[in-house]
UniProtKB/TrEMBL annotation:
Pfam families: peroxidase. Belongs to the peroxidase family. Ascorbate peroxidase subfamily. Disulfide bonds join 97-178, 130-135, 184-390, 263-295. It comes from Digitaria exilis. This is peroxidase. GO terms for biological process: hydrogen peroxide catabolic process; response to oxidative stress. Its EC number is 1.11.1.7.
Length: 499
């Protein structure tokens, strides 16, 4: 991933275009096709992405920049494997938004200076984004007007995602600097790296060029996402499904060297564990006693999100280091899924290796983060979009800007001359008209609310107050989360705002 000796050459390339006279699309596309026959996957992806980006970005079939030509030449030499990874490019914004990476780093560092919890929050957010539908920033999306309940509302995320506001801040800053240029998916990948570095990891390159997805659906998580109760076979299976190895599982779980978990994520291990034992016997008894002190038994009407958060690593809980692995070996793994890594002989051997060698783990962890950052990325203008706001797809954002009243009026007006408007069907009394859904009005304190709130004459439900960790399959599937209008009897809930 090092640019190495090619950095000066690449940066020296001017953006002046070279015109390929008399080159038709079909013949120009045969160039990479013949070059690609001896390429490996990375090189093949790079060549095709270069060609497609160069042509579509400029909407001309006969123009390649000198930069594109040089890169193609280097690809042909087999030299740029180091520069470009799976079609993503280190220094992607060098020409279009050179300050982007620096600005994101400054924002992340500022936010972490104000709240240390942002660093683990961003790393987790990035992993959760990439693991489900790839690194497309779908984790950041709010509910769509079509009513898709987004990924972030899934119980598998525990309703405890942190760092969304940091990404919003970075995005709005970058939109001022270079509008519609830096994707939210890239911002998240840079921010996760910067958070890891702020927590003590040596820096690593983040190749960029991801575009943002346009859909996010909580239904994509159940059965596809690791949860705290999983053991090694299931965790390995889930990681393999995403093209990640068992070693990646062990390496990446080391992120639990910083941050923590809310009591409800592991309370099953310290209260009523089984008929034989109240406390999970695989836990160090002293550690279990400390956990019980920090997490008293829950009363039925306690809000789990207000429960205390316990650090994963009691020794160096703000430093991204290998202490997590020593803690595991000392039976102080917080989640069942953490402890599982020492119960399986194969993963235990890896845990022992990483517990011995911090530098090795740090280096391999960075490489694993790079692998995660390439999961199902959207590349090239034909795919996804560069969102203007990370919480909304672009079309939806324009809709949201229309005043709500205007939308309601439009809804009530029957088309005056239906025969002139082919896309609007005449209203026959026997056909049931589908009323278009109103976009959900963004509420400035939505992230802080648990429960219902009122906007004019409608009642909106923000977050379901679950009674603790629910197995993903049993989580209520009715689409009442995240701002869907709740009518009838439920209107009575509309006084129960909690901040
Ligand atoms: C292997 C399966 C994994 C499971 C079951 C799991 C589960 C969890 C749970 C339950 C929490 C606590 C959330 C809370 O209570 O707020 C958590 C926190 C965290 N997870 Fe994981 N995780 C896994 C893998 C990963 C990976 C691969 C990464 C990153 C590469 C990661 C990064 C983090 C971080 C940094 C935190 C702390 C967040 C904070 O303090 O805000 N986790 N994880």
């Amino acid at each position: 991933m090092q640019i190495g000796p090619f950095a000066p050459i690449i940066s020296a390339v001017s953006t002046k275009s070279i015109r390929l006279n008399n080159v038709r699309p079909s013949s120009s596309l045969s160039l990479p096709a013949c070059l690609c026959s001896s390429f490996n996957n990375n090189q093949r992806n790079l060549a095709s992405s270069l060609i497609s980006t160069a042509f579509t970005r400029r909407r001309r079939w006969d123009i390649l920049t000198r930069g594109d030509m040089l890169l193609l030449f280097l690809v042909a030499l087999g030299a740029v494997d180091a520069l470009i990874v799976d079609g993503l490019q280190v220094g992607f914004y060098g020409q279009t938004c050179p300050e982007a990476e620096g600005a994101i780093r400054d924002i992340v560092n500022n936010e972490i200076a104000m709240d240390r919890g942002i660093a683990p929050g961003l790393i987790r957010l990035f992993f959760h984004d990439c693991f489900i539908t790839g690194c497309d920033a779908s984790i950041l999306l709010d509910e769509s007007p079509a009513g898709d309940v987004p990924e972030k509302e899934s119980s598998a995320n525990g309703f405890t995602l942190v760092g969304l506001n940091t990404i919003d801040t970075a995005k709005s800053t970058l939109e001022t600097m270079c509008p519609s240029t830096v994707s939210c998916a890239d911002i998240l990948a840079f921010a996760a790296r910067d958070a890891a570095v702020a927590a003590g990891l040596p820096s690593y390159d983040v190749a960029a060029g991801r575009r943002d997805g346009v859909r996010s659906n909580m239904d994509d998580l159940p059965g596809n996402f690791p949860v705290p109760g999983h053991h090694v076979p299931r965790l390995t299976e889930l990681f393999n499904q995403r093209g990640l190895s068992q070693e990646d599982l062990v390496l990446l779980s080391g992120a639990h060297s910083i941050g923590g978990a809310h009591c409800f994520m592991f309370s099953n291990r310290i209260y009523g564990f089984s008929e034989q034992a109240d406390v999970d016997p695989t836990l160090d008894p002293e550690y279990a006693a400390r956990l019980r002190q920090m997490c008293p038994p829950r009363k039925p009407d306690d809000d789990p999100q207000q429960a205390p958060k316990v650090k994963f690593d009691a020794q160096t809980g703000e430093k991204l280091d290998n202490a997590y692995y020593s803690e595991l070996l000392a039976k102080r793994g917080l989640l069942t899924s953490d402890n599982a890594l020492i119960e399986d002989p194969q993963t235990r051997a890896m845990v022992e290796t990483f517990a011995r060698d911090d530098a090795l783990w740090q280096q391999k962890f960075a490489q694993a983060m790079q692998r995660v950052s390439m999961l199902d990325v959207l590349i090239g203008e034909g795919k996804g979009q560069v969102r203007k706001q990370c919480r909304l797809v672009n079309k939806q954002e324009e809709q949201q800007q229309q005043p709500q009243q205007q939308l309601e009026e439009q809804e009530q007006q029957p088309p005056q001359f239906p025969w002139f408007r082919q896309h609007q069907r005449p209203q026959f009394p026997w056909s049931r008209q589908r009323r278009p859904r109103l976009p959900f009005p963004h509420h400035p304190v939505a992230d802080m609310i648990n429960g219902f709130f009122r906007v004019e004459r409608r009642c909106y439900f923000i977050r379901l107050l679950s009674g603790g960790p629910l197995p993903e399959e049993s989580f209520p599937r009715q689409r009442s989360t995240a701002g869907q209008a709740v009518t009838g009897a439920n209107m009575r809930h509309c006084g129960t705002l909690r901040f």
